[in-house]
Amino acid sequence: MMDNRFATALVIACVLSLISTIYMAASIGTDFWYEYHTLSPAENVSEAGRSIWEEFFSKDADEKTYTDALFRCNGTVGLWRRCITVPKNSHWYSPPENDMTTNCISFSLSDQFMEKYIEPGNHNSGTDLNRTYLWRLQFLLPFVSIGLMCFGALIGLCACACRSLYPAIATGVLHFLAGLCTLGLVGCYVAGIELLHKKLPLPDDVRGEFGWSFCLACVSAPLQFMAAALFIWAARTNRKEFTLLKAYRVA
């Protein structure tokens, strides 16, 4: 029979695990990991502004091209997509207007594994290995994190079916590894953004900041660690007390 303390710990751990999974899935699926805010949005509807965001949607847009558009058009960047704010009526003959909309374009799978260059946009400058592998890791780590938590949940269901608490240790270990992956994702993303801005500094009239999608990932990591601690504590302590009780009955 399970002690109420362990049952409570398991329920809290399951709730934390569920919340962290929802936060992680939401952060992966949204486009607000990093946001740019320009102080002169009127440029977006000028002829120069139109040429910038037309290049942004081009399939041949390189890193420098779409980053310049993000700077000038109140852009946001996610793990899968990049977005800019453009006029709703985007024809060349249309008069300037303040009615704006957000348009996005997805990173293809080849984009996620494409090499980053020492000078963004200059293919002859050589490969920047640091930024290349940071970009690839920030794409892979969130899926590894969610996969580990789902596998841990499966083990937990098997433990319930077997009426044993000891497999919860494996669930806790998997949640701990998932937390490390999420923490690594956050670190890789921050490092990648900082290295990019060293290559392409922000214009004086542009402000950049981490968005709420990034914050969800930051919150998800400690939730995963707390869930892991509760799973492991409940399983180990329950087994230890069961062993002592069994030894006492034998004596």
UniProtKB/TrEMBL annotation:
It is found in: Membrane. Signal peptide: none annotated. It comes from the Eukaryota. It is a multi-pass membrane protein. Keywords: Membrane, Transmembrane, Transmembrane helix. Its main location: membrane. PANTHER family: CLAUDIN DOMAIN-CONTAINING PROTEIN 1. This is Claudin domain-containing protein 1. It comes from Pipra filicauda (Wire-tailed manakin).
